[in-house]
C-alpha cells in the first residue's frame, strides 16, 4: 500500500510543497513549453519533464535552453515564458486530496507553511485561484527569498524559523527528489508523493512514500486523523469519463476471471495525469443496457507491469456476452485504495474481489446512491 519505515514520529507543524504536491502544473508547463519551442522550430517531447521536477524556474530554463540548443540566453527564455505561464495559472487544478488536507490541518489549527522553489509572485498568483489557501498558511516562503532553493535545506529551515517550531518537529510533504533531499537535510520528517510515474523506488530517503494525498494518514505523525472515510471508502468530488468499450489486454476474463470493460485512454491523458493511480468506484451507464454498479482501477498495474496508464472498469453485473464498441459512461464517486503490487496472482484476485465487495456495499449508501441518476450516465452532455 505504501512504503514506510516502521517508526513514526509526532510532529507539530506541516510544510507543504506547491507544484506537483498540491497543484497539477505539469500539463500547463508542458503546453506552454510546446507553444514556445515551436517558435524556435523545436518540438517539446516531454523528455525534460523528469529533469525539471522540483527545480527553480532559472534551473528549468537552463535545462530546456541547453537540451534544445536554443539561440537565446537563459534570462531571455525566462522573460519569454513568464507571461505565458501567468496566462495559464488560472487553469491550474488542485491535485486530489489537496483541498481536503489543507482544510483538515488548518481546521485543527496545525501550523502550516508553504515552501516552494517558485518565485513569490508565481506562488501568490497560483494560490489566488485556490479558495481558502492563502489564509490557511501561517508562512509562505518562495525560492527567491532564500539564497539557495531545494535541494538545499535553507527554505525548510527558514519556514521552521518563521513558524517558531524546531525543524525536527516539522513534517515535509513533497513530490520531488530535490524537495525530499532538502527536507531530510533540514532534519525533518518527509512524506514523498512522487509526481513522476513509476519512480517510487528513487525516494528511499523519505520516511514514507505514498501514492497520493488521498493516502496520507496524519495520525501516523501525531496529527488529527481524517474522519471522512465511510465503510472503507473516501467520498470524492465526482468526475466523469466515457467512450466506446475497447479490447483490453486479454487478461481480465482469461487470467483474472474478472470481465473488465476497458476504455481507450486516447484523449484522456490530461485527465489521467490529474488522478492518482488506485481503485475507484461509482456508476456505469451502457447506452443500450442501463446503469450498473462499478469498481475500477486506474494505473500501471504493477503485477502486469503496464507501459501505459490504463482505465479498467468492472461492471458488477452478469452480462450475456461482451459489448465491445458500446458507449460506456462512468461517474466516479469515491476512492478505495492506492495501486499496489502483489507477489502472487491469487493475492491480486483476492484483493480485486475485496474491492468489489467494498464498492457494492458502499454504493447502497445514500451519499453514493444518488449519483445513479446522474444525467451523464444516460448520455446527456456535460
TrEMBL record:
Mention one GO biological process in which this protein takes part, according to its record: riboflavin metabolic process
Recorded hits in InterPro entries, A to Z, give: HAD-like_sf, HAD-SF_hydro_IA, HAD_sf, PGP-like_dom2, Riboflavin_kinase, Riboflavin_kinase_bac/euk, Riboflavin_kinase_dom_sf
Q: Which GO terms describe its molecular function?
A: ATP binding; riboflavin kinase activity
**Main EC class of this protein?**
transferase
Q: Which PANTHER family does the record associate with it? A: RIBOFLAVIN KINASE (PTHR22749:SF6), RIBOFLAVIN KINASE/FMN ADENYLYLTRANSFERASE (PTHR22749)
Q: What is this protein called?
A: riboflavin kinase
Q: Which residues form the Riboflavin kinase domain?
A: 234-364
Keyword terms: ATP-binding, Flavoprotein, FMN, Nucleotide-binding, Transferase
